[in-house]
Each structure stands twice: as structure tokens, then as C-alpha cells.
Amino acid sequence: ISGFSFDQMPTATPGHNDNRMVCREIRRNSAGCLKMRGKCDKCQAILAVDCSQTDRDQRRIKERFEDALRLAERFTRRYDEILKAFQEEMLNTTAILDQLNQQFGWVSQLANRTRNDKLLKVITVKSSSPEDTSQTTDTQVTVQVFDSEPFSLTVPGSVSLDDDTFMDIVARDALRGFKDNKVE
């Protein structure tokens, strides 16, 4: 503790007044000395003085104080344990939330964009006629999902443009393509 020196410390001599002076010093500096007791020689000396020999009430107070100090130290240790466990749990939770965001963040982006009227826009459909009519060629479809960049997908030639499943395949593949682009 800055400002303390051994010269300032009252010494206990056999005289009764000197003991009172030491006890007064303990009362004035007890909070600071409790914090510094392991680092400050004066605090160790002050706390080593036993004022309880002069007064029975002081002895009881000292015992209660020491009990309270032990209890406070026990609660401090328990608090530190709980705090450490909580911090570890929060780190684990944060890692899980980051993982979920990476895996399913596209869903929230999709939900946020559903207010737009242009959910799925088919830009072009290219189906070339095969030279051999027994063979079917795949159909190239360019789509735009929400405000994403347009991208192309392929619908198998076995599904005709008039088939109900054609648009199901386009919608499914468009959503998959949108998801893949947003997750990257």
C-alpha cells in the first residue's frame, strides 16, 4: 500500500494505551489490509495483532468476522466456478448458433425476401429439337430467384414443357441453386 512505512506503524508495547492505538489502526485499515494481506508487510503485521486478548466482545467479533471471511471466500470460489461454467456454456452456444447460421441462414434470407412479388422469374427456356426424334434433349432454363443473379439449370428432356412436373423441377432446382449460392 503506497504511503505506508514501518516507521508509521504503531508498535505494541506492554502499555495499555499502545494496544488501543494498534487496535484503532486495525479498524481504520482493515478493509485495505484484508485485500493486501499477502503483499504488504504492514498489513500482515496489523492483522497479526490480536486485540481480542483485551476484550471478550472483541474476541467474539473477531470469531464472527473470521467465519464471515471464510464464508465469503467459499462463496467467491463457488461464484468463480459458476461463472467459468457459464462462460464455457455461452461459448458452446455461440459456436452452435454460428454453425446453424451457416447451415440454415439461407432460410432466413429467403423468408426476409418473400415480401417481394418476384419470387421466381423464368427468364429463358431453351429446348432444341433433336435431329433424331427418338431422342429427347434436355431443356435449359434460366431463372432468377428474388434479387439473385440469374442462373441456368437443366430439366431432363424426358419431361415435356406441357408436363405439370416441369415447373416443379424448375422451382425445386431454382431453390436449390439459390440456397447453394447463398451458403457459399
From TrEMBL:
<dbReference type="GO" id="GO:0042981">
    <property type="term" value="P:regulation of apoptotic process"/>
</dbReference>
<keyword id="KW-0325">Glycoprotein</keyword>
<dbReference type="InterPro" id="IPR016015">
    <property type="entry name" value="Clusterin_C"/>
</dbReference>
<comment type="similarity">
    <text>Belongs to the clusterin family.</text>
</comment>
<dbReference type="InterPro" id="IPR000753">
    <property type="entry name" value="Clusterin-like"/>
</dbReference>
<dbReference type="Pfam" id="PF01093">
    <property type="entry name" value="Clusterin"/>
</dbReference>
<protein>
    <recommendedName>
        <fullName>Clusterin C-terminal domain-containing protein</fullName>
    </recommendedName>
</protein>
<keyword id="KW-0964">Secreted</keyword>
<dbReference type="GO" id="GO:0051787">
    <property type="term" value="F:misfolded protein binding"/>
</dbReference>
<keyword id="KW-1015">Disulfide bond</keyword>
<feature type="domain" description="Clusterin C-terminal">
    <location>
        <begin position="2"/>
        <end position="179"/>
    </location>
</feature>
<dbReference type="GO" id="GO:0005615">
    <property type="term" value="C:extracellular space"/>
</dbReference>
<dbReference type="GO" id="GO:0032436">
    <property type="term" value="P:positive regulation of proteasomal ubiquitin-dependent protein catabolic process"/>
</dbReference>
<dbReference type="GO" id="GO:0005634">
    <property type="term" value="C:nucleus"/>
</dbReference>
